[in-house]
């Protein structure tokens, strides 16, 4: 069953109430997060209860500090799609604003967990904090649970084979330092950048290396430079395929540009992918970005980069990625087993088309994510609907037109 998405903790359907509730921001959805969710699924299966994740948009750190240096690993669309592969039944992406931030720990438990969701059991990470001034700790949550009649499970830290705790901070550090393979070991998959292929100035095409250009989410900040990458491409006959490539992320100093851009050259590929949504997995950092004084030197370096990327990526299978692992990080894994992680362990969504008569048989709305903080919801006639949180979504990728970058077709309750 597809995961269902809600935008608010109030007015939830009856099937959500009584869930095993998992709390957290889950930025990156790394292997530590996966262990927390796996524990919640175990509890849910034993109690015959659904599992509901509650996360917050925008990320509280950006809301409070407006932190321009904050590196967000997974914008909402990427995070929601990843969570949907973990066997979660419901996702509440709660809008985080000043009113919500003023809840004390006790008010959050009473109004949100009990009145709103009717939590049967709450699962958190060992370091989870909540409530005004981050005053709610795990012991506080446990005490409130005992007093109000729900159980609390705090999952201890999960470590890699070399003793590193899986954390979003560690993943960010790896990416900022240009170590995508180390980040992949912590994530359990390659780090991906996702965006719509836009029109550029065609400098790459003029050099003999056409590129798909993506503007990164404003909070995504891996190290600038050249990478060996694996990118998803929509094929008319075979659906979504993963294609080898080489990419430059940076401000293109050879052309005196200032705005950072991800330029992806797909190897042995010549199809038109303008306006398509592209997922680009960073596999290996090749070199820092630098300026070239002439066209010939730049062409020669791109040829060298492409050959190096081809050599690295030739060892990776091009088959569709396996299903997501929904258990805690396997303690038997060795560094050799994870030396080359899978390109992505998120299943590809099946292709679909929108039938004209579907509106009447299945009342739907279009939810269009406009970034990490806001959304636009419209009905089939194009008129706005007032409450995004009255909508419930199925993030299975079906009925998604290619002409729009960031949208999901979702069922209205």
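Q: What amino acid sequence fits the structure above?
A:
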């Amino acid at each position: 069953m597809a995961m269902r998405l809600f935008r608010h903790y109030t007015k939830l359907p009856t099937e959500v109430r009584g869930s095993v509730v998992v709390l957290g921001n889950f930025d990156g959805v790394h292997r530590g997060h996966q262990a927390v969710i796996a524990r919640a699924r175990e509890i849910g299966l034993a109690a015959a209860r659904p599992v509901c994740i509650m996360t917050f948009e925008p990320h509280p750190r950006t809301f409070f500090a407006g932190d321009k240096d904050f590196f967000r690993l997974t914008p909402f669309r990427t995070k929601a799609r990843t969570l949907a592969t973990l066997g979660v039944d419901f996702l509440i992406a709660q809008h985080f604003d000043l009113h919500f931030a003023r809840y004390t720990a006790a008010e959050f438990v009473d109004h949100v967990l009990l009145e709103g969701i009717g939590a049967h059991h709450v699962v958190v990470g060992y370091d989870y904090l909540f409530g005004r001034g981050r005053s709610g700790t795990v012991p506080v949550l446990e005490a409130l649970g005992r007093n109000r009649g729900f159980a609390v499970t705090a999952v201890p830290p999960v470590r890699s084979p070399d003793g590193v705790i899986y954390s979003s901070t560690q993943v960010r550090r790896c990416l900022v330092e240009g170590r995508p393979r180390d980040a992949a070991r912590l994530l359990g998959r390659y780090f991906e950048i996702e965006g719509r292929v836009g029109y550029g100035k065609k400098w790459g095409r003029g050099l003999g290396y056409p590129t798909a250009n993506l503007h990164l989410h404003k909070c995504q900040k891996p190290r600038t430079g050249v990478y060996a990458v694996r990118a998803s491409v929509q094929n008319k006959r075979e659906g979504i395929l993963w294609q080898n490539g080489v990419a430059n992320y940076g401000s293109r100093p050879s052309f005196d540009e200032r705005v950072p851009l991800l330029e992806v050259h797909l190897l042995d590929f010549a199809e038109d992918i303008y306006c398509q949504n592209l997922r680009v997995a960073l596999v290996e950092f090749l070199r820092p970005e630098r300026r070239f004084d002439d066209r010939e030197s730049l062409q020669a370096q791109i040829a060298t980069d492409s050959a190096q990327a081809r050599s690295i990526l030739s060892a990776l299978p091009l088959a569709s990625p396996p299903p997501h692992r929904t258990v805690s990080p396997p303690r038997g894994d060795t560094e050799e087993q994870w030396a080359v992680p899978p390109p992505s362990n998120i299943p590809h969504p099946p292709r679909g088309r929108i039938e004209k008569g579907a509106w009447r048989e299945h009342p739907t709305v279009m939810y269009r994510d406009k970034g990490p903080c806001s959304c636009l919801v419209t009905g089939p006639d194009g008129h706005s609907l007032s409450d995004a949180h009255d909508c419930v979504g199925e993030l299975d990728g079906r009925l998604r037109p290619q002409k729009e970058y960031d949208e999901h077709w979702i069922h209205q309750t």
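Q: And what stands out in the fold?
A: The chain has eleven helices and 16 strands.
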